[in-house]
Description:
The protein is α+β, with helices and mostly antiparallel strands. It is built from 16 helices and 14 strands.
Amino acid sequence: MALRTADQFLAALRDGRTVYYKGERVADVTAHPDLGRAARHCAIDYSFADDPHHRTLAVTEDEHGVTVNRFYRVPRTAGDLLKRREMIAETTRAGRALIVLIREIGTDFLPAAHIVTKAMQEQLEAPYHERLNAFWTHVAHNDLAMGLAQTDVKGDRSLGPTDQEHPDYYVRVVDRQKDGIVVRGAKAHTTNPIFADELIVLPCRALDERDAAYAVSFAVPCNAPGLKFIASPFSGGGTSPFDHPVSSRHKIADTLTVFDDVFVPWDRVFLCGETRYAGALALGFVEYHRFTAISYKLPLLDLMIGCAMLAAEANGIEKAAHVREKLSRLIAYRETVRALTVAAAHECTTKAGLAVPNTTVTNIAKQYFAENYHAMVQKVQDIAGGLLVTAPSEADWKNPETKHYVEQYLGGKKGFGSINRLKLFNLIRDYFASDFGGYHELLAIHAEGSLEAQKITILRGFDGGAVKAFAADCANLDPRS
Length: 481
Ligand SMILES: Cc1cc2nc3c(=O)[nH]c(=O)nc-3n(C[C@H](O)[C@H](O)[C@H](O)COP(=O)(O)OP(=O)(O)OC[C@H]3O[C@@H](n4cnc5c(N)ncnc54)[C@H](O)[C@@H]3O)c2cc1C
């Protein structure tokens, strides 16, 4: 089957799915002024297959010899992981440094679930692995987009699902029927499901035996009855490409995702009650998902450095010692994230025949990126100056009464005219000093898991025995006392 075009992708979203935005039901997400912008941003992914510059990267064959999008390729080697990284970075770059996220997160689930369901099928003699692989073939051969809902609304964070005041703070199975299951509850922060064909669901934590109803993983079409999406209004962006050069054209949309007794047929169920596999599935997904996270940061860091360098030139301060120091810190930040991402692919491990990015290196990269992001934003803001938030608007530039003043007074170093300087500062504000910028700061810290989650993974993955033995040996510790 041929890969879908961007138009075919958009047309398929007009399927009666239940979407709410700013208090209203949205009949067609592609036609909505805000959400339509996000839909077209997602369509970037589908435009790659038709674009001569990107086709070689985006189009490949799967193990059945069928033409598929690169994202669906089964990762067997470090080379596959590096190509995936390139695909994520290039689609993000085409989205002006905003991740597209319409296949990335779903294809983080597929290999992780492949590994876990293989063990389940061997140990439980249940057909989970067959179902998962059939689903993988279905999405690959039909070139479908996927959202993924892992993060439950969670209620009291100190309690597990069963001990919560409300039984639906974690998504759970409320009925088992001959043909399938019925699920209820809600997931938070789901990115772009309103632009996806399929929604994948999995637990967000390890569970104990009391939590059997919450040990559930499945996939449903995004127009399934009872599935409701309440989209966040955050970062709607302005409409002027002059004032908001990126956010007026690019957007992703996160939802509160409600499962109001949604029926899931058995052939779409990948976990149902087997609590001991919930943690492995949750963590296995995250092992791939954090590699995706560090892969899509690079275009953003390139933009950050480019903005800082141009702002320094516009202001005539590019030779100042403090500016050179800040620029070198920004470059070192970018290069550290890049090098760790490449190392995580090269030092991958193999599980059930699949390449898994090196977990420790991946988590160090994600944590390093997230912990330093705000400090790096500060450097760009510092170099640019206050005009980032005080500049006149496009309307003032267009007004004959003020046009002359805007053009006359806001120039910088010789050759850097007022309008170019304004355009540059508008880009910097859009990304690093606006609600869109705030979105990126939150995304840096929380998306793909909060800071503590990475620290825990780094500690857990490190071989403490070897270094303790080395230190004990150097200290001549007596093993008998
Ligand atoms: C922009 C964005 C997009 C996202 N997209 C998706 C998506 O597509 N799909 C998806 O499933 N998820 C998505 N997420 C969710 C993301 O993975 C979560 O935000 C992240 O796991 C943190 O969960 P939380 O937001 O509920 O915060 P919390 O878990 O409530 O964390 C808040 C604070 O509480 C701390 N904390 C939490 N539990 C405990 C505890 N038991 N003990 C001590 N401290 C604790 C945390 O360390 C943190 O400091 C997205 C998030 C963002 C911001």
